Amino acid sequence: MKKTKNILALVLFLLFLVQYAAKLDFDYLMQLQTNPNYRKWSGFSLLIIILSQWILPVSRGIFDLTGNALEKMIAAHNWLGVISPLVFYFHSSRPDYGLLLFLTVVFFTNILVGVSLNSVSFNRYLRLGILLHIFLSASITILAVFHVWLVYYYN
Hints:
The mean pLDDT is 88. This protein is mostly helical. It contains 7 helices and no strands. The chain is 81% helix and 0% strand. The protein is globular and about 45 Å long.
């Protein structure tokens, strides 16, 4: 199952990268993304996914979750990470500059780090990878909250 998740995550990442590099635009989605209500609710959905990813470290650290419950929590965490590029794409298919581009790069870098943590070949780098994953996750959370603040401050 890990292999399926990894492949799906990589495919979604590559699809996002290809459409971004090739400047492929889908008119209906572009029109939706100009609608303030759509942007607000798609952004809210993405922020919920980002924040819900923190349930795993909180459950492990504070509540000392172990065993089967921990395995289920890790599986849910992984699946949310796998579908997050899709939600990101529906929220913003063209992050062109500044904070949005930086947030996009950090977001997708974190997905790639997460996928590598699920790979058997990277087991010896597990501690370093988890530290990087947590650092990038904290950065994404801070940048996303800052992005939301900027959006509401200037609108």
